[in-house]
Amino acid sequence: MFWGSLGALAWTHAGYPAAMGALARLRPRPVRKGEITPSVTLVVSAHDEEAVIGRRLENLLELDYPADRLGIVVASDGSTDLTDAIVGEIAAREPRVRLLQFPREGKVAAQHRAVRETASDVLAFTDANTEWRQNALRQLVNNLADPEVGYVCGQLRLESPDGANLEGVYWRYEMWVRAQESACSSITAGNGAIYAVQREAYVEDDPKFGHDFGFPYLMEQAGRRAVYEPEAIAVEKPAAEPEDEYGRKVRTIARALGHILTGRIFRRTRPLYMAELLSHRVLRYSTGLLHIGLLVSNVALVGRGPFYRLFLVLQIGGFGLAAAGRVRLPIPGARLAYYYYVVTKATVAALVRYLRSGTPQMWDKAKGTR
Description:
Elements: H1 2-26, E1 40-46, H2 53-61, E2 70-77, H3 83-93, E3 97-102, H4 107-116, E4 122-127, E5 131-132, H5 136-143, E6 149-158, H6 169-184, E7 195-198, H7 211-221, E8 225-236, H8 242-261, H9 271-282, H10 287-300, H11 306-326, H12 334-357
């Protein structure tokens, strides 16, 4: 248990990223991009987003994309505030904007309904609290010039209102790993803030299963690629504290576990991509259990020799560093250790939540990000 847990943690956090980085350089698989302007429907999913929906539409109307090739649809998922009124007012003076009002069924169900009521070549998706850089849509669709590419996601940046970059080390690390996967194969997860898909590649899946984790492996299972475009940039306000992110992490990981524990991701696919899913997703979402196994087995082995005693001290020291990060002590690495603790704890809470209630179809928006 000790060596298996330690090896799995070392592989998912260090060995796998290093292996994908090497593979991306030794056997790259570049995307054949092209300057194309297919017709695009850009879907904004919204539930009670009166605080942000107006400026979100203003941002999208300023995109550098031919006006006659772009339609913007707000899929209102049972909004009860002023969201629909604000969108309706903008749509009355801007023909590219359209409001679709649906009963409250959840984000993915609203996306499915919006797709059925449109007919563009490409479907792009975003959230109400996101802002896209002016060239983001062009950067996304240029990847779809490659007939092998069915799905492309952009880069989400976390910035404060004054423009300061607040991306943490862990987030930048995750984006780097995603870039390596894209360079030689396909990514294992996307981002709901900025992505696009060929209409013929769109999958109207069970609304319980979101696009972020589902679409990349569904593309691979259908013989297509899912790639990452770092030049297609979206910006969001980050949560103020790791604790604010905890609930969102639990929810997103619980949804991801639905893909894993139902066996959906294990349908036939390329061996390399299956290794990616196991290394980056299955093991990553098992980190909480792996750390518990590592600690329990370490305690049981502490009498076996100085190595196990030293390692137990290191583990306890890691908890101490995380505790220092929680109270904001000025110790190098403390905040990173605390963030890692929060994310790892969320994997266990998500598993408990999934086993109790399954995959949630509806959820509340993250606090502090509007």
